[in-house]
Amino acid sequence: MTGNKPQRSCLGCGATTDKGALLRFVLGPDGFLTPDLKGKLPGRGAYICPLRSCLGLAIKKKRFPASFKSPVSGIDQEKIVFAIRTIVTERVRGYLSLAAKAGEVFSGSDAVAGRLRGGKVGVLFIATDLSEESRKKFSAMAGHAGVELVAMFDKESLGTLIGKEHRGVVAVEPGGFIAPIKRELEIYRNFFDGEV
Prior knowledge:
alpha+beta, Hypothetical Cytosolic Protein, Chain: A, CATH 3.30.1330.30, four-stranded mixed sheet, three-stranded antiparallel sheet
């Protein structure tokens, strides 16, 4: 352990780092490889860096069966990537919903624009079906303010997540929800070539 944090090695690249910075996998009861992004599932864990390239290396070098000392089913890279994408998306949904319940989100073009100008935005979500004109406007504002911009949900989903009608832009205030949201987004982008 370094700095009192447990260390693990990536099955892909071999780098050793804090366990919490890696993605954990377990074997399900059926012997299938299962991503455990919360790190809570029972059983022996195998770890990779949160990178598509490390997943590919671990699969190519047959490191999962070696790590578990057991045959492993379900080692299909695209299916695993899809599962990770689904889990990460749901986790971002959860954090956004919790932030809304805690009163740490705001929406609506004027309110969001004002907050961006005042430096009071931690992450900005724009709807995937936002008009091109509005998308360019908020992309420029976010860039100028140095705020991370995310296009992950449509207007209906964004509204539902914060308990409102359709929303084109939703901003999360700087605070406790920003770090976990950004970590999930980093995983998402690492597996999907910068998409979001």
